[in-house]
Write a structure and sequence with these properties.
It comes from Propioniciclava soli. Keywords: Hydrolase, Magnesium, Manganese, Metal-binding. InterPro entries: CoAse (IPR045121), NUDIX_hydrolase-like_dom_sf (IPR015797), NUDIX_hydrolase_dom (IPR000086). The chain has 224 residues and is an alpha+beta fold. It has one domain (6-155, 184-203): Nucleoside Triphosphate Pyrophosphohydrolase. The protein is built from five helices and twelve strands. Strands 1, 2, 3, 4, 5, 6, 7 and 8 form an eight-stranded mixed sheet that branches. Strands 11-10-9-12 form a four-stranded mixed sheet.
C-alpha cells in the first residue's frame, strides 16, 4: 500500500497541531543534553486489505544488543546521535534507520517531528520523527554491532488492553509498558509510544493498576 492510509493521514494532521507534540513527550520534554533522533516508522502490511482503520499498520522496533554499555537488550525505535554532517534531526533519524535496519531515507515520508524528549540516565535530548514507509519489505538487521533483532509489531496488538501494563523498576521507577508475545516495550520508548497512541486517538481503555516488573531480558542496566 503506497498511499497514506486514513489513520496515518489523521495522525499527520494531529501532529501539526501546536500542542500535540507536548502531549506525546509529556514530562520528558527537555532542551538539554546531547542531540539524538529516533524514527517512529509505520507501514501497511501487504497481507491486510486497505481500509479506513489501523488494522494493517505495523511499527518497527529494534532490540539493542546485550553487549552495549547503555540500554543493552532494550527495545527502541531506530535512531542514535546526531552527527555534525546531518542537516538536521530529521536527517539524523533517517540516516540511523538506514544504518540500523536498511531503510533508505527516500523511502520514508515524514509525517511529523515531535519536541525533543529526555532519556534520563544517558542525558540524551532525543527528537522523535514520525514516518510512513511507502514501499515496505522484510526488515533486516543492518548494524549487527548495536542491534540484536528488529521486530515488525502490529499496532492493534500494542493497543490490546490485555497487552498494556505499568512496568516497575527495581529502583522504584514506573511507567506504561506494552507486551506483545515475548517483547516488553518500556522506559523511554514505552513513554513515547503511549503518548503517541493517545494523541492519535487510537488508545483503548486499559488498567494502569496491572503492574509487572521489567523482565530480566529487557533490564540490562538502569537506562530508561
Amino acid at each position: 500500500m503506497n498511499a497514506l492510509p486514513p489513520g496515518l493521514a489523521a495522525l499527520r494532521g494531529v501532529l501539526a497541531e501546536a500542542d500535540a507534540g507536548a502531549g506525546v513527550v509529556g514530562s520528558r520534554a527537555t532542551g538539554r543534553g546531547r542531540r539524538a533522533a529516533v524514527l517512529i516508522l509505520f507501514w501497511w502490511d501487504a497481507d491486510v486489505p486497505p481500509g479506513g482503520g489501523i488494522d494493517g499498520l505495523r511499527l518497527a522496533l529494534v532490540e539493542k544488543s546485550p553487549r552495549l554499555r547503555s540500554h543493552a537488550g532494550q527495545l527502541a525505535f531506530p535512531g542514535g546521535g546526531v552527527d555534525p554532517a546531518d542537516a538536521d534531526d530529521v536527517a539524523a533519524a533517517l540516516r540511523e534507520a538506514e544504518e540500523e535496519v536498511g531503510i533508505a531515507p527516500v523511502e520514508v515520508e515524514v509525517l511529523g517531528v515531535l519536541p525533543a524528549a529526555s532519556v534520563r540516565v544517558s542525558g540524551y535530548r532525543v527528537t522523535p520523527v514520525v514516518g510512513w514507509w511507502r514501499t515496505p519489505r522484510p526488515l533486516l538487521v543492518a548494524d549487527t554491532d548495536e542491534i540484536a533483532a528488529v521486530h515488525a509489531v502490529a499496532v492493534t496488538e500494542l493497543l490490546e488492553p490485555a497487552n498494556r501494563v505499568t512496568w516497575e523498576h527495581p529502583l522504584g521507577y514506573e511507567g506504561p509498558a506494552f507486551v506483545v508475545d515475548d517483547l516488553f516495550v518500556w522506559g523511554f520508548t514505552g513513554d513515547l509510544l503511549a503518548g503517541l497512541v493517545r494523541v492519535a486517538g487510537w488508545e483503548r481503555s486499559w488498567d494502569p493498576a496491572m503492574r509487572t516488573p521489567v523482565p530480566r531480558r529487557f533490564l540490562r542496566d538502569t537506562g530508561q
